[in-house]
Predict the 3D structure of the following.
Amino acid sequence: MIVGMRGREQGARRVVWQRAAAGHFVDLPTGTRAATYAWTTKPALRRGDLSLLYANGRQEFVGIGRLLCDPVEADLGDGGWWTFLQVLGAKHPVGRDKTGLAAGRGEFTDLTARPADVARVLAAFRHRDPDLVERFERWRTELPPALRAYEPEDLRWSERAEPAKDAPPPGGELAFQREIEGFLTESGVARPIEPRDGINLSAGHHLVERAGGFGFADLVLPRPRTASLMLIEVKLHARFGRAANGISQIRRYRPALRQVSDPSWRIESYVIAKRFVPSVGQLAKAANVVMLQWHDGDPPRLEFHAGRRAPAWLKRLPR
């Protein structure tokens, strides 16, 4: 008998029906390799417990999740409970009406004592997505992998972020965007978009996403004398969380930007923040995003924080 998770026997996993706005489930991995995200959770759950992920509004089960660590209270963030969740999205989401389940309320419903309800959801998935069901059943009977690239302690800074809506939020972050735009254009790193660039953005940096939603990229700026287009997400404080560090927005907006720009453009992806939670930079390399840290001053300064390599133009900025 293998025992783990504070004495719970291997295979004795809790299962919860976890609900959130549909915007939080954009661009989930649907292949054979699951991805890891910082995600909200119930404090009573433990490492190895499982989630059936459900998109409110669309009323669809959209994937599965597995806790990779015990919940951590975000006492330096939003005060909620967070975990690193291993997530695999469904290739074909399943409507609740296909499962026979009544509508749930709140963010979580514990289905551990309702195995018939879990079986209904899995049966609906099995018809068109048998690999997802096979993965869920395997997760039920094996210990999750050890966390190597992430520190549970970092979850203390986590904060919820609302899914993209129809206008950029006002306040300090918006002013910070304008400051960065002015700095990059005045220093010659970037220039404003011109009609001849063949970039069809409407209502600011409004982008329509593949899944049918839409959002606002913080900054889209061409590089002078090159075929490079800078896609920039701006954060005052980059934290763990689905939309709190800019990575998830970049991954959603990058293909949307390709759809509305001339194919000759090469898109460079950046997150610029004044502060970064420890270890959040580890997300950048896998997503092919460069993270730069902003330092206030006269003149202000940009410093490479994380990513595959520092951009060459960074060396030409004032120090």
Observations:
- Helices lie at 115-128, 130-141, 172-186, 247-259, 282-287.
- The chain has two domains: 3-157, 172-316.
- The chain has a mean pLDDT of 83.
- The chain is about 20% helix and 30% strand.
